Amino acid sequence: MDVVLLSRLQFAAATMFHFLFVPLTLGLSVLIAYMETKYVRTGDEIYLSMTKFWGKLFLINFAVGVVTGITLEFQFGTNWSRYSAYVGDVFGSLLAIEATTSFFLESTLLGVWIFGWKKLSKKAHATVMWLIAFAGSLSAIWILMANGWMQHPVGYVIRNGRAELDSFTAVVTNKFGVLEFFHVVSSAYVLGAFFVMGISAYHLLKKQHIEFFTRSFKIALVFGLASSLFVAVIGDMHGVHVAQVQPAKFAAMESHWETTTRAPIHLFAIPDEKNEKNLIEIGSIPGLLSFLSHHDFNAEVTGLKDIPKDERPPVLLTFLSFRLMVCLGTLFILLTIYGWFKRNRLVESPNYLKIMLLSIPLPYIAIEVGWVLAEVGRQPWIVYGLMKTSDAASPVAGSQVLFSLIAFILLYSFLGAVGFYLIVINAKKGPVLE
Amino acid sequence: MEFILQFIWFFLWGLLWALFFMTDGYDFGVGALLPFLGKNDTDKRLMINSIGPLWDGNEVWLITAGGVTFAAFPQVYAVMFSSLYTPLLMILFALIIRGVSFEFRGKIESPGWKKLWDTCIFIGSVVPAILFGVAFANIFQGLPLDQNGYHGNLIYLLNPYGILGGVLFLFWFLEHGALWLSIKTPGRLHERSVSAANNIWFGLIGISVLFLIATYFYTPLYVNYLAHPILFIVPLITVLSLLGVKFFLLKEAYFKAWFASAATIVSATFFCIIGLYPNMFPSNIDSIYSLTAHNASASQLTLTIMLVVVLIFIPIVIGYQVWAFYMFKDKLSVDDLDYEESY
Fold this sequence. Notes:
The structure holds two protein chains of two kinds. By secondary structure, chain A is mainly α. Chain A contains 14 helices and eight strands. Chain A has two domains: 1-173 and 397-423, no CATH class; 220-392, no CATH class. The radius of gyration of chain A is 23 Å and the shape is globular. The termini of chain A are far apart. The longest helix of chain B has 36 residues, at 2-37. A two-stranded antiparallel ribbon of chain B has the order 1-2. Chain B has a two-stranded antiparallel ribbon with strand order 3-4. Chain B has one domain. By secondary structure, chain B is mainly alpha-helical. At the A-B interface, helix 3, helix 4, strand 2 and helix 14 of A face helix 3, helix 4, helix 5 and helix 13 of B.
């Protein structure tokens, strides 16, 4: 098998696995910081129990997330050395700044938070959790600025046979990265909220710790409602920007073949990449695609046929990922709005609680397909318009990568299984009331 | 100006590795000593909890060293990490299982479960300790690198000098970890840790001498020293601090002994880094293929911006890490294990 494909599979496996844990870290840290602050402010012991119960789940999740993040930074060197050498002058500094400014803070303070209950004042201890939450989001800024640069490279010049930094300001104010940051972080908050609501629903359905889980649910509900609306608003802005700077991805997202004005959206379609058309188109709404991309029903939207064949992303995967992401995002808004009206009668709404329990995996799926859309939709480029993925891999033997890919899959499956198993048994066990 | 920036960055790069070895080094040592000094579950928990609050922050020095290699020397990052593909991934996998073990181990009360994660902590500590040594020793003596890239594999790295480097690193970290346990643990475990630190010290001295001699025959590291004899002050610090370890151990001043060990590790790393300069990934086929601080660096703009970033943030990081270190410097007692958040 060829090195590029194997390296892509390995990067996909490592990243997607890592991102099963990161969003919960981001989302739950904010909720826990809020709960601990409530404890400090009110002195109500139930908030302390909440901090500890959700904190325990947070820590198991954090452990797997943090260790799997290490491989990502090094994989650019091990598997994508041509990429690293070519763009490292711009891209590398973002990763280095992430470690220096954010990851250090998060990791050091996490140890302080876990072991510092008796060593710090209550107020200081709660502040530490806010700083952890802050550092997590700060980390996300740098990582998404790095990804944003791969999606839409700015602030560089080609010099000495590589991309060299020309304007640091342009790189760190890249609109693509800024939109990605808000989109990713708010979707992580949605995930954290659904995690808390789902587990709370489990206990409320069993009618145990009702006070504890009703309060937890309500805190998460407000957070989830606000975040899921925000995700959608940012997602819309992001879509418009993608249409401008990544026309190929945008056309693939919608399986849009012909360049037209009044471009339609198909609620569902089956793309036929060979014959450059859609086999089935259901529920076409004329002009809507033009509107979504340019906020004008008559605007022209570039079709895939006007993009050279070797510069088109895989249409089916991009199209389906986008559809699934948007459907789920809409569902999150509906579920949280419905929850808002049920918020004072949660225990009497077993069907809603059952749905919320079963909804725990959905934000995970939405986030993963969102990344599939972002990364697969960027193909065949590793840096859009600048470097092709096929030119980026390391000159290592395919057997080496195959071996490491198998090792990744075995190790990560094992860790994932143990991690989620521990989260589930501890979530079911419920809180220890102080 | 560019030359000076590259020069500064080369030694900052060395400093980050030195700080990583100094901080995560005792975590590796504790993990490697776990099966030998931990006679029962209480002992093992004391050992794990002695590094519990700090290991995660310590490990970030590695991430930063990696990130800084990428930012300041992208060509080195690309060639070094793809050339050392297998050993580097083995290190990363080992660090992964070590990291989750601390969190997972105590979550289920079953001897088999704990045994599994104890083994992972041991492997996850010993493997990186040795492989970092093997990798750096091979970098010191040069690697088969030409215009077509790197022509070696894991077996190639396991040459006598490489293995000696691995053993040296392992002993550094064992000593460092045993001293840490002497500070942090109570009772019989404390006594065993002190006696381990005393015994390992003799091994460390022997291997260090062997390494210094072998370095003369296998590597060009002494060339810079012979050109500028004043630099011999650095290995002198290493020797003095290594003697200091024993001195303070005999005086039962374990904190001072630990700091002496930290000074040993940092100065020994600098001894090697100074000898390596300006090479970062030297070729043993022909020096024209060697990657150096001056032919493989980032642009002047990137080096400048990154310099500003690290000059602001690394002191801040050191500040809050020292704060955390002092918060958790006290000796643990068995009662501390009842604390519900402990590992």
